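Consider a protein example.
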Amino acid sequence: MLPRYVIIQILKYFGGYYELRGFWKFIYTLNLVSKEWNDNIVPHLFLSKQPTCIVNNISDLKKYQFNGKFLQLSLNINNAKLERFYHDSPMDSTFHQNITSMKLDDHCFIKQLPSQLKHLQVNIEGDILKSPFNSIVTRLNQSLTSLQLVIGIEFQLTSLIVSNCQYNLTQLILLGRPTMLIPFKNPNMLNEFTKLQTLQIEHLYCEVPSLIYTLKTMKSLKNFEYFHNYICIATQLFQDVITTHQSLEKVKLKTTTLLEMDIIISSLNSNTVLKELRIQGTAIVPQICCTNSVIEIFQINNCQFPLWSVPSSLREIDMHHINGIQQPNLFEGFYTIHPQCEQISISIEHITSSLIAKTKSLNMKSLKSIVLYMSTNELHTKDYQWISNSLLTGFQNYHKLLFYPRIFDSIQDKHGLEYTVIDIRFEC
């Protein structure tokens, strides 16, 4: 039999795949090999990066216990049995000590929270002022850094939430419902969270001037996400916040209203901090060039990709929403302007010989992946082979690389049309 350390080194390869279907069944099978494997081999698979295991019922627990100890647990108390087990277990047990995340419904009554709890999600169906959540808030400890509230009706940040979370919370997620217009009454209270780095607001209506003013005063904020189908804050956000904010690095927006691209580009030209911008929405064609040399990911759906007049730091460029006929010279001088680009996504409406010319004209030595979007009903096996050979030919002068495809991944766009995504990667 192989020595223990050899077995551990071999099995460690699988330790990072805990999110794959069937993984824990595989681990449970390894536990049954022998007591030696259960006590001294399987636990070592997770020493370098311990997974957070989702627990939805009592039967899940046996999968995540090794040698009498639990892995990190994310506890979803959604049934009476699990709630009873939680209350009956001693607070100093390894079960409680390894709970780092909890998800609670509004009706759950929790006497005491785990000492190592880092993330808490609560579904609040009624008035937050009358919610049992208020009693939970008073028992929050300093280990909690992330709070997620799923809101059913009108919402406001209460003094209890602020006073118990303002000095340790780094992530706050506020989620409404897409089908309802739920008001967020006091966004100005957000600036009381002095260490907040990530703020995500979805489907909550709040006064735009109040939110914008608050964002300007949140000096520690690094990541901001705002999704709402009918409320657009993009124009004011870029004019009043992006141009001057000194810590904001990632922004994600989703809206159905028309975006003014020139305002976005002008604000980016004044910004030296933002690294990632993703906007789901439709934008007016930009009339000015971008001079930002800091941003690394830039994505705005349903808009022509802006032209850069200086070398950029873009690592990912997504242009699969663009009609190539509208921008026939899109790829001219691409390597000179985007020398650090590692992935480009483009749409090939019709498979023609122009694909070869386009890929050759890229001349991008840093490129690692090309993602092609094309209509599924136009794709055949022979077409795929032709695309593969064309791309390999187009890059043979620039790469000494292994070439392999990750084959078809079908998707549907918002109009219900089916497309095939081909991710073609170059590996050193």
